[in-house]
Write a structure and sequence with these properties.
Blueprint (H helix, E strand, L loop, with lengths): L14 H8 L9 H9 L4 H7 L2 E3 L4 E6 L6 E3 L5 E4 L2 E4 L14 E7 L5 E8 L17 E4 L5 E4 L18 E3 L3 E5 L6 E2 L13 E4 L5 E5 L29 E4 L6 E4 L5 E5 L5 E8 L6 E7 L9 E9 L4 E8 L10 E8 L5 E11 L5 E8 L2 E7 L6 E7 L8 E10 L6 E11 L2
Antiparallel strand pairs: 1-2, 2-3, 4-5, 6-7, 8-9, 10-11, 11-12, 13-14, 15-18, 16-17, 17-28, 18-27, 19-24, 19-28, 20-21, 20-27, 21-22, 22-23, 24-25, 25-26
Length: 433
């Protein structure tokens, strides 16, 4: 630092003399006036504002002051911190550095709000040497802890437990009913006999129970499909004989029709001679929107009568819509045989309306009739092989019937005097769609 005391009283000085004092750098003092101001204590305005400024200690600091003298700022040590000279560090806690906890001890540690461990120790694990199971109403069994983590229960020392209240070994399990057997570790199971004699059967007639077991079997008299129709192939289309219990018989007033089983071959609907006698064999519909009902029949009646046979659909009010054919060998010039026909019946099975189609055929051959509910229409068809179908009629499903259907089946009218009509129903299928 340059001592300017010798120049405190000068009034004028050559610049060269000043250089001798402050050195040869002319930037040290730019003018005699500046040197005079420094010597006299007159500080220029540019520096006076700085000298009046203070340094204020912020968060975590102490000290500070104006710039008229040297200013010191000190770092305040908070919890867990230590300041020494120019170094800031984490203060030591009272915890002894090391590892805590082992195979037989668990570490117990205390932490402060700053996350520092303020206390630590190892606490021994306490496991009982004996574990006791107390049975309800009885003495404690002999149970020990062997130190390896296993609990050993000796069932021989259970003591006052009631006999049979605990297992002492494998128990015998016995099966009964449709399957029988007994054993302790493995159980050989024997299926109970269903009552059928084991053996082979020809054209078998069988009965199957709800569990899928054949309960009766006998040799049948059926042959190949050609017995029913020269075009029928049993390997392509199976014959499913209807069950009498699934159908309900209904007769018009004074009809006297009957419905009987055909010894595992289906059912037969018989209508005695009577003017406009109508009988039906009906089963529940499977859908209100779409279904297919088909029947394989082989009807017989007098060739001089006037009859109607068809598949019919009944609504909830009892009205019936029938699709099939009628024998018109007497009343038409088209020749002998049958003609496709559409009949409607009132709730009393009385004929309501009739309309003939254009299809004529020889009705003496076995054949299939079918009615499909599809797209809001009843579509009726006939087939002589069960595979190829000829459409007979298509009418609106609600053109005669109501919107709620109840049943579908076979309907027949006998209007021949002195002769009965027989309709053997050898197959009836009712499926969706």
């Amino acid at each position: 630092m340059v001592d300017l005391t010798p120049f405190a009283t000068f009034t004028s000085m050559r610049r060269a003399d000043i250089y001798k004092f402050v050195g040869n750098d002319p930037r040290t003092v730019k003018s005699i006036e500046e040197l005079q101001n420094l010597l006299s204590g007159n500080v220029p305005d540019a520096f006076s504002s700085i000298l009046g400024t203070s340094i204020i200690a912020g968060d975590g600091l102490t000290g500070g002051g104006t710039l008229s003298a040297d200013v010191t700022l000190n770092v305040g040590a908070g919890t867990g911190l230590a300041v020494s000279a120019d170094a800031i560090g984490i203060a030591n806690t009272t915890v002894t550095a090391g590892s805590y906890g082992d195979a037989t001890h668990v570490a117990q540690i205390t932490f402060n709000a700053q996350g520092q461990a303020t206390a630590a120790s190892s606490v021994a694990l306490h496991l009982p040497n004996t574990v006791t199971f107390q049975a309800t109403g009885g003495a404690a069994p002999g149970t020990t802890f062997d130190g390896s983590g296993a609990v050993i229960v000796d069932y021989h020392t259970i003591g006052a437990q009631a006999a049979g209240s605990y297992l002492t070994g494998n128990q015998t399990i016995t099966l009964s009913g449709d399957a029988t057997g007994s054993g302790t570790t493995a159980i050989p199971v024997t299926l109970a006999n269903s009552g059928v004699t084991a053996g082979s059967y020809t054209n078998a007639n069988i009965t199957v129970d709800a569990k899928g077991r054949v309960t009766t079997a006998s040799n049948g008299s059926g042959g190949s499909g050609s017995t029913f129709s020269p075009f029928y192939d049993s390997g392509v289309l199976a014959i499913s004989a209807p069950v009498l219990a699934n159908f309900t018989l209904a007769n018009s007033s004074g009809a006297g029709g009957t419905m009987t089983a055909l010894n595992s071959r289906g059912i037969v609907l018989k209508i005695p001679s009577n003017a406009s006698a109508v009988s039906s064999a009906m089963t529940a519909v499977v859908s209100q929107s779409a279904f297919t009902a088909s029947a394989f029949i082989n009807p017989c009646w007098t060739q001089i009568g006037n009859i109607f046979i068809g598949i019919a659909v009944q609504d909830s009010t009892g009205k019936v819509d029938g699709f099939g054919y009628r024998d018109v060998s007497v009343s038409t010039t088209a020749g002998a045989g049958a003609i496709s026909s559409h009949f409607t019946f009132t709730s009393a099975l009385a004929v309501n309306t009739t309309s003939n189609g254009t299809f004529h055929f020889e009705q003496s051959a076995p054949h299939w009739l079918r009615v499909q509910l599809t797209g809001g229409n009843f579509v009726s068809s006939i087939s002589f092989d069960g595979e190829n179908w000829l459409q007979l009629f298509s009418v609106g499903a609600t053109s005669f019937l109501g919107s709620t259907l109840s049943s579908v089946g076979i309907v027949a009218e006998n209007n021949a005097s002195g002769f009965s009509v027989f309709v053997p129903i050898m197959s009836f299928n009712n499926t969706t769609p």
